[in-house]
């Protein structure tokens, strides 16, 4: 018994070393294990580096030509989010500019804009937004609303005939409110999407690398099987543990780089508590590794992995509840999302990184990751046992 | 050789290709099954258009009829649903960190008191920007509630003084914004995102399958046989190989167009023909780009990795979510190298906003250019097929 365990440990270390050698020798695996996690985060962070949308060009059609419309236009232009790029004589001219992508919206003042205000009637400003981009629509509409609110308060003040400044404040806003965006206070797009993308990169590159390595092993093997014909590869646990330790070793470094170095390099919000992060990353990495090893049995040719894994990236990103809130994901898709480590990994990491949550706050995700680790480990062992049995049968048939 | 000969050879290669497509299961999955799954996935995920009934909390230290009425109004909004009342801000913040709520409203003690005695109470709205979609929508709703509360006070007061509805409206909101959200009046995220994501995924498959199908000829040592079937003419060989794939992909594209614009009735004032032309351009430009990539780097693994990199980065660089004009100028220039960017521009200008095709002439020309790219590497490709060896 003891001797078998001793032999198992030796074999496990042998397999560990073999796998490391395979990883280093195989250019494809090296690219996915090292190059992609190194460069992708930098590329993505560079793309979203500007974080917010500023100075959206807008066209103005001012049929009113009054001092109030000019004040509105000035204040609208002064806003950091928008910029008055063109003054047009008609809506058709402005529409043409939208078609040429010169502007992303139109502000239209009717002829009786100031006249109605002077007559103490409600006046309207029309805001036409090009809905091909939500961020420009938001910028234009929010700016128009706040400029209107600002001018409204000026008009109310002048009409109220109050005595003191304090009275004016109360007339304009009987109920005052404070608006506090929490966690990602800048509302930056990079801050929002990068934490999820970083965790997804870890899972996807692991899947790709493990799958590619398994594909290579299968192609190089005499019987086109996953496991080489060697006396070292006789037990399930030594194979599974040996390989997974190798991948874990590489990825503990990669994960540290991706989760800690990249946010700091690009100035993203990083409220993560290091001990909590390490404790959380352990089951995440393990479940990704075992998930990858379990799926690697499906891979017959090396390059099939790339076909299968790449498109799933965008699926996993949406299933994790980053872009579309997880409370609104339909039941079926939510159930499907529970099968993948990235769902819980992304949810947990985003909470820790952007919202400053501690491990206790994400206990649900943590427990689910451990459950996934155990389940995938068992399934990986089953897959490899099946493979060992097949190799034994093929060898005995040959003999 | 006359035209009939060329056509016969092309058909030969195409028939051979059909055999290959049938024999390897991966083609069935990547060309048909996965694109269909993607089409249904995105459209069903964002089926609501805008996320409805997002969980919101309330910290009500005041607990009067006024605050309860404001809470009820907030609950009545389409986007929000009050899930819990918290005892203090710390509890609510912890719930937000656990992702149980996306926003909360805070009424400090004495709010109604101060309101009735005109001492300007201050309430607070907190919303989480970890998910920009949820944060932006809920922030807007909470702001509306706060503003309505303010307006309600003014309105009640003026009504008591005998002002008419029109006068009250004119005083409380002298300038009103008439918002026209052109073509997407529901502000539906489904219309906004699905029309970029699904074609992006289809183009991803086209890139990868094109490169894979050419590369596996080299991998399995069938490249010489392939060229021989085409009479040693690389143009005939590539055309014949791409023809069955083109037919499958254009069918998938048309299925997408029929489902999304026909059945789900997404806005397309540009017309169905424009959309179908765009679909055709998307397929040929993706195929052309794939062939070009492989011709540039005749190693299966290298070209597949590059194509997958290109395809995944396309989603960000298409500029549908975060606009390209807001990115740094170097990235703006880089974005022009991605077919999906041009697809999105043509879709947005000609199909979604209904402007005539010449408004997007540059992007259409770019897509045609991508389709013609293989011309540059044909000789290299022929040499690779005849001389190169598969390197794993």
TrEMBL record, chain B:
Coiled coil: none
Keyword match Lipid biosynthesis: no
Transmembrane segments: 26-46, 191-214, 234-261, 273-297, 309-338, 358-377
Top-level taxonomic group: Bacteria
Subcellular compartments: Cell membrane
Positions of the ABC-2 type transporter transmembrane domain: 27-373
Membrane topology: Multi-pass membrane protein
InterPro entries in alphabetical order: ABC-2_transporter_component (IPR051449), ABC2_TM (IPR013525)
Membrane listed as a keyword: yes
Pfam families linked to this entry: ABC2_membrane_3
Keywords of the record: Cell membrane, Membrane, Transmembrane, Transmembrane helix
Descriptive protein name: ABC transporter permease
Organism: Xylanibacter caecicola
């Amino acid at each position: 018994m003891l001797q078998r365990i001793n032999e198992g440990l030796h074999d496990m270390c042998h397999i560990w070393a073999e796998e490391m050698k395979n990883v280093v020798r195989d250019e494809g695996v090296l690219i996915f294990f090292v190059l992609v996690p190194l460069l992708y985060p930098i590329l993505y962070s560079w793309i979203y580096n500007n974080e917010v949308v500023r100075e959206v060009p807008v066209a103005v059609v001012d049929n009113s030509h009054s001092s109030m419309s000019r004040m509105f236009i000035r204040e609208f232009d002064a806003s950091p989010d928008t910029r008055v790029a063109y003054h047009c004589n008609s809506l058709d001219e402005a529409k043409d500019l939208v078609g040429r992508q010169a502007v992303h919206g139109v502000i239209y003042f009717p002829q009786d804009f100031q006249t109605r205000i002077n007559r103490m009637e409600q006046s309207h400003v029309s805001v036409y937004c090009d809905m091909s981009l939500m961020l420009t629509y938001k910028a234009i509409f929010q700016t128009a609303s706040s400029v209107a609110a600002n001018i409204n308060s000026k008009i109310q003040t002048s009409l109220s005939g109050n005595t003191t400044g304090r009275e004016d404040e109360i007339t304009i806003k009987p109920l005052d409110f404070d608006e506090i965006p929490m966690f990602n206070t800048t509302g930056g797009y990079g801050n929002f999407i990068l934490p999820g993308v970083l965790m997804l990169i870890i899972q996807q590159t692991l899947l790709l690398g493990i799958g590619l390595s398994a594909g290579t092993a299968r192609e190089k093997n005499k019987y086109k099987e996953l496991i080489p014909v060697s006396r070292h590869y006789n037990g399930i646990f030594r194979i599974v543990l040996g390989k997974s330790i190798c991948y874990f070793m590489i990825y503990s470094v990669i994960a540290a780089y991706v989760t800690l170095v990249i946010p700091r390099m690009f100035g993203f919000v990083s409220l993560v508590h290091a001990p909590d992060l390490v404790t959380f990353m352990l089951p995440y990495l393990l479940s990704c590794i075992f998930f990858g090893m379990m799926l690697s049995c499906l891979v017959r040719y090396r390059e099939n992995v790339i076909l299968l894994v790449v498109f799933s990236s965008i699926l996993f990103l949406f299933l994790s509840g980053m872009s579309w809130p997880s409370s609104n994901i339909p039941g079926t898709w939510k159930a499907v999302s529970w099968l993948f480590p990235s769902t819980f990994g992304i949810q947990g990491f985003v909470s820790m990184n952007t919202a400053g949550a501690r491990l206790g706050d994400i206990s649900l995700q943590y427990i689910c990751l451990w459950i996934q680790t155990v389940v995938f480990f068992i399934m990986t062992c089953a897959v490899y046992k099946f493979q060992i049995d097949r190799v034994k049968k093929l060898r005995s048939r040959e003999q | 050789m006359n035209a009939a000969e060329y056509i016969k050879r092309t058909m030969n290669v195409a028939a051979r290709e059909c055999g290959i497509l049938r024999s390897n299961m991966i083609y069935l999955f990547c060309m048909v099954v996965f694109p269909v799954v993607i089409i249904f996935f995105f459209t069903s995920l964002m089926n609501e258009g805008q996320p409805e009934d997002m969980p919101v909390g309330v910290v009500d230290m005041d607990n009067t009829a006024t605050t309860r009425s404001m809470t009820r109004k907030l609950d009545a909004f389409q986007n929000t649903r009050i899930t819990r009342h918290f005892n203090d801000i710390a509890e609510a913040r912890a719930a937000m960190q656990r992702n149980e709520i996306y926003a909360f409203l805070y009424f400090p003690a004495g709010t109604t008191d101060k309101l009735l005695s005109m001492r300007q109470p201050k309430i607070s709205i907190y919303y989480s920007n970890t998910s920009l979609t949820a944060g932006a929508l809920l922030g807007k709703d909470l702001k509306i509630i706060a503003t309505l509360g303010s307006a309600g006070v003014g309105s009640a007061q003026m009504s008591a003084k005998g002002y008419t509805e029109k006068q009250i409206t004119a005083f409380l909101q002298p300038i009103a914004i008439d918002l026209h959200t052109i073509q997407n009046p529901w502000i539906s995220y489904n219309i906004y995102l699905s029309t970029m994501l699904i074609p992006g995924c289809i183009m991803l498959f086209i890139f990868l399958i094109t490169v894979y199908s050419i590369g596996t000829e080299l991998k399995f040592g069938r490249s010489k046989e392939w060229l021989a079937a085409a009479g040693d003419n690389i143009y005939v060989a590539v055309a014949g190989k791409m023809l069955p794939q083109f037919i499958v992909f254009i069918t998938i594209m048309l299925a997408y167009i029929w489902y999304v614009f026909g059945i789900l009735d997404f806005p397309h004032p540009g017309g169905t023909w424009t959309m179908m032309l765009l679909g055709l351009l998307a397929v040929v430009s993706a195929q052309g780009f794939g062939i070009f990539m492989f011709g540039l780097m005749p190693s299966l693994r290298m070209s597949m990795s590059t194509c997958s990199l290109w395809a995944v980065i396309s989603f960000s660089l298409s500029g549908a979510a975060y606009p390209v004009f807001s990115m740094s100028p170097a990235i703006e220039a880089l974005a022009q190298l991605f077919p999906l960017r041009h697809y999105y521009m043509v879709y947005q200008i000609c199909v979604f906003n209904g402007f005539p095709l010449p408004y997007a002439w540059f992007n259409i020309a770019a897509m045609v250019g991508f389709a013609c790219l293989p011309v540059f590497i044909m000789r290299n490709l022929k040499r690779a097929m005849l001389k190169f060896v598969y390197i794993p």
